[in-house]
Design goal:
This protein is mostly helical. The chain is built from 11 helices and no strands. Helix 1 crosses helix 2 and helix 9 crosses helix 11.
Length: about 210
């Protein structure tokens, strides 16, 4: 058994209906676009590497770099397949020096067994956050994205995610300038804040004619 029930397409759709009844901005999203897509990533080392690559760059750019690393590993991205890669080899794939440090530190911790992404599925949100933010180069944003997309947790609010903050500001025609303001705005979304975030993302990418890769 996992520590908490993960969201499914059905529970996301049901939660979106609940949210729409109590939030007019989200009601507009649901009316225009329907339930949010079931964006999901695997609960693995590869997903954490991808989130590291996404720090402070576009999703498309990060995905291109991620795909190069995965191809260099033979089509799969696992810590053991990355075991013999040097700093220079990772850098040659288009990874910054700083992110190379983060990826190789994560690789080493997974290989030694001191950290296991797969075990996170059995932990509470708070423990998952503690485990991820204890890793080099990973903060609350990394933990939030992993909780929402890899573990499909229902009640996470990524106040450091620029797409969410900008998307919500556009939806409400209000500029949110602090985490506190975002927490107050999202209070009535509990216990489905992750679903509300997905709806904001849905509107954000739709407005730009894009999709989350």
């Amino acid at each position: 058994m996992k520590a908490h029930g993960a969201l499914t397409a059905q529970s996301i759709a049901a939660a979106a209906q609940t949210l729409a009844r109590q939030d007019s901005s989200l009601a507009d999203v649901l009316r225009q676009l329907g339930p949010p897509p079931t964006w999901k990533r695997s609960g693995t080392f590869a997903t954490l590497v991808r989130i590291i690559l996404e720090q402070q760059v576009s999703l498309d750019s990060a995905k291109a770099t991620y795909d190069r690393i995965r191809a260099a590993c033979g089509g799969q991205l696992r810590a053991d397949l990355l075991a013999d890669f040097s700093v220079d080899q990772i850098r040659a794939l288009g990874v910054t020096r700083q992110k190379t440090r983060y990826i190789l530190a994560l690789r080493d911790e997974v290989l030694t067994g001191s950290f296991s992404p797969r075990r996170l599925a059995y932990q509470t949100d708070d423990i998952v956050r503690e485990q991820i933010t204890a890793r080099l180069g990973m903060g609350d944003w990394t933990a939030d994205i992993y909780l929402i997309l890899a573990l499909m947790r229902p009640d996470v609010l990524p106040v450091g995610d620029l797409a969410f903050v900008k998307g919500l500001s556009e939806m409400d025609c209000v500029e949110y300038c602090s985490a506190e303001e975002l927490h107050v705005r999202a209070e009535n979304w509990r216990p489905f804040r992750s679903v509300a975030v997905r709806m904001v993302w849905q509107q954000y990418v739709y407005n730009r004619g894009r999709k989350i890769p």
